[in-house]
Amino acid sequence: MKTKQAGITLIGFLIVLIVVGFFGYMAMKLVPAYAEYMGVTKAMNQIATSGVDGKSLDEIRRDLMFKMGFQYVDDATVKPKDITIDRSNGTRLRVAYDKQVPFIYNIDFLLHFDKSVPLHGNVSL
């Protein structure tokens, strides 16, 4: 009686290993940028819930940059010019920035992050 063997060959295993390794390396490069974005989001929510009555845009920027420091957000990632107040439909705190992550040789990932949260209170000019 003949039995038919089933399974993966060595070459097939190496191909699967290469594909998994490639996506694992990609995740190693991209996950820190998204973790940093989660820190930006958390700091923005803290500013929004604490209230901004009578604060100017510069004071809000200073507070947000201070809170992002506790969330391990790099100062080179989010610059003060990336923090704006949008008054088109209610008062909203908006942070929009780009992050360039080097990948392989001359291939980079360009990640664009844009988040806005509603502010409670009046922002002075």
Explain this structure.
Strands 1-2-3 form a three-stranded antiparallel β-sheet, with helices on one face. The longest helix has 41 residues, at 10-50. It is elongated and about 85 Å long. It contains two helices and three strands; from the N terminus they run ααβββ. It starts with 9 loop residues before the first helix and ends in a 7-residue tail after the last strand. It has one domain. Helix 1 packs across helix 2 (57-70). With 125 residues, the protein is α+β, with helices and mostly antiparallel strands. The protein has helices at 10-50, 57-70; strands at 83-86, 92-104, 107-118.
Strand tally is 3
Euclidean distance between termini CA atoms:
88 Å
Given helix and strand content, the structural type is alpha+beta
- Shape, principal axes of CA atoms: elongated
Describe the strand arrangement of the main beta sheet, using strand numbers: 1-2-3
Cα gyration radius (Å): 23 Å
Mean pLDDT: 90
Largest sheet: 3 strands, antiparallel
Number of structurally distinct domains:
1
H/I helix tally: 2
Tell me the helix content: 40-55%
Content of β-strand: 15-25%
Question: Element order, helices and strands?
Answer: HHEEE
Low-confidence stretches: none
Summary, kept brief:
With 125 residues, this protein is an alpha+beta fold.
Write the layout of secondary structure elements.
Blueprint (H helix, E strand, L loop, with lengths): L9 H41 L6 H14 L12 E4 L5 E13 L2 E12 L7
Antiparallel strand pairs: 1-2, 2-3
Helix pairs in contact: 1-2
